[in-house]
Amino acid sequence: MVRLLLFALTWLSLYAGSINGVVTDITGAGIPAAKLVAIGWNGDRIEAMSDPAGHFVFADLQAGDYSIEISVRGFLNRKIEDLQVRVGEEKALPAITLSVAAIEGCTGPFPPVVVYTPIPAGRSRLSGRAFLAGNNRAAGALVLLYEPKNHRKAGSAVANSSGDFLFIGLRPGLYQLRVRLSGFAELVMEGVEIRAGFRSETENFSLAPCPHGAACSAVKWVSVAICL
Fold first, then answer.
1. Whole-prediction pTM value?
2. What domains can be seen in the chain, in order of their start residue?
3. CA distance 30 to 139
């Protein structure tokens, strides 16, 4: 009986393979608690869950073809097909990126938009990227953050060569965001929310040029959230 059991375990180890990978959002950050279901060529369904860094593994799979379905609240479902597992193979997949989905009760997307992504630890933060016409980056733009209740400035940043800016260590609450650049209308974004334990990212906004370099009125928006 013992020999038979050892033989069976050896046979399983020789004929088993595995699939591993990581589930990320559009920023490259790992998505925790994503549900993954591997569907085998024989109809078997094996479930796995991504860890806090977004990593997952399906171990002891029989050799054959598989597809993987990925789902997690706040993101669009995705399916990876035609995955072939060979005998003894440890198949490492490229990062599986999920797109953010608006859920019932949230409006959007409509520019400018704020996307909220959970972060496992650390201080709440606000990041974004400022554009000019087309895909040109608003390098050197001055980004100001105000508390709307008392109009007190909460912070300032200068966009880098890629138009990126970042605020760290903000208190949760609603803020007003202003973006200024010479020759362009000031952009005023109301209702930017900072949430505890989330990375907030402003997306889909650009600066409008002033005609012939003259002064022009500020362009005002109310931010729309894509909720997770």
1. 0.49
2. 2-97 (2.60.40.1120), 113-226 (2.60.40.10)
3. 28
